[in-house]
Every structure is written in structure tokens, then in C-alpha cells.
Specification:
This protein is mainly α and 78 residues long. The protein contains 5 helices and no strands.
């Protein structure tokens, strides 16, 4: 279980840091938090792989597929 969780965390980090331009990260973070009903603190814990949070496949896929240029509602509909 821990190995799978670490793999999901790494995928999430790669998608966030490598795919999302620096100036667009706050907007994507806000959209992610709204989509999944979490706080920015929880987002930070997920990003760092904190033990108090659980990463899901759905969250990883969302981050891997999000287009930072799309308006928030367009992403929510997909």
C-alpha cells in the first residue's frame, strides 16, 4: 500500500511541477481544492506526501489532465 501511495504522490508532483507553468500554479491549486473539497493546507500535504493525507488515482489523473488555460467551469464539466 505504501509503495502505491508513494507512486501516486510522485505522479501528482511531476504533473504539478512539470506540466503547470509557475505563474499558473495558484489558479490550478485553487481549482483542484474546489473540485475535491479540500483546503490549501491539505493540498500542500498531498504535494509533499504527508502521512496525514491520502492520494487517490482520481486526483492524480485530474492533475495530469488539467489544462491550466481552460476556465474552471470547463474542467469541472469534464
Amino acid at each position: 500500500m505504501k509503495k502505491t501511495y508513494e507512486g501516486l504522490t510522485e505522479r501528482f508532483r511531476v504533473a504539478y511541477f512539470n506540466r503547470i507553468p509557475y505563474k499558473m500554479r495558484n489558479g490550478v491549486k485553487a481549482r483542484f481544492c474546489e473540485e475535491f473539497g479540500i483546503t490549501e493546507d491539505t493540498f500542500g500535504h498531498k504535494l509533499s506526501g504527508g502521512n496525514s493525507t491520502t492520494m487517490t488515482e482520481t486526483e492524480c489523473k485530474w492533475m495530469e489532465e488539467v489544462n491550466p488555460l481552460e476556465p474552471a467551469k470547463a474542467v469541472a464539466q469534464s
